[in-house]
Amino acid sequence: CVLTGDQPQALHGSGGQGTTLDNHFEAIPADRTWRVPPQPKPSVDGPQSAIVTGPAGEEIFCDEHGRVRVRFHWDRYCPGNEDSSCWVRVSQAWAGAGFGNLAIPRVGQEVIVDFLNGDPDQPIIMGRTYHQDNRSPGSLPGTKTQMTIRSKTYKGSGFNELRFEDATDQEQVYIHAQKDMDTEVLNDRSTKVRHDHTESIGNNQKITVV
């Protein structure tokens, strides 16, 4: 609608002419609810790097779904604690109903965060990466022929490790248990050694046949 009004009196500085008022507006029926036009949602273009956070003194901080909290590098005012972000989902190598791979990112690790369909409300950790402060297992490039899975003792310096050495004529599978190692076989077990076999036991050995 357009509302137009004329005022014959001239205002000071108007050159002796009257003023005109034009007012444009839109109206809706009284029985219709007015709603604000939706604003376009921001979109995040590409993945970002972040640091996993948690309470002071805590090394592993997650919820029942394995989600963690992070601090983005651009967030200068982030406290860097358990309130640094929303819970962020973590992509795993294999995930199913009660089975799969599970490795919770630990506090201080650098992670790569992407956003599903560019939605800032749907962050997901797609990977983890080493940097100057968080170095990889072994000593690169000298150990470049090794593939290693090494954990870290919770609030300690120990570790469990599974390592594959692929250097020519030095191939090896190495297993390290920081404390105990248990193996359960529900049926038969066979071992075949084509060369020497050495076994060293520092205390007692017990074998039970039932």
UniProtKB/TrEMBL annotation:
Family matches, as InterPro entries: Gp5/Vgr_OB (IPR006531), Gp5_Vgr_C (IPR054030), T6SS_RhsGE_Vgr_subset (IPR017847), T6SS_Vgr_RhsGE (IPR006533), T6SS_VgrG/RHS (IPR050708), Vgr_OB-fold_dom_sf (IPR037026)
Cross-referenced Gene3D superfamilies: Gp5 N-terminal domain (2.40.50.230)
All copies of domain Gp5/Type VI secretion system Vgr protein OB-fold, residue ranges: 64-130
One Pfam family, short name: Gp5_trimer_C
Stretch list, region Disordered: 1-21
SUPFAM superfamilies listed in its UniProt record: gp5 N-terminal domain-like (SSF69255), Phage fibre proteins (SSF69349)
Name this protein carries in UniProt: Type VI secretion system tip protein VgrG
UniProt superkingdom: Bacteria
Domain Gp5/Type VI secretion system Vgr C-terminal trimerisation, first and last residues per copy: 147-209
Family under the similarity heading: Belongs to the VgrG protein family.
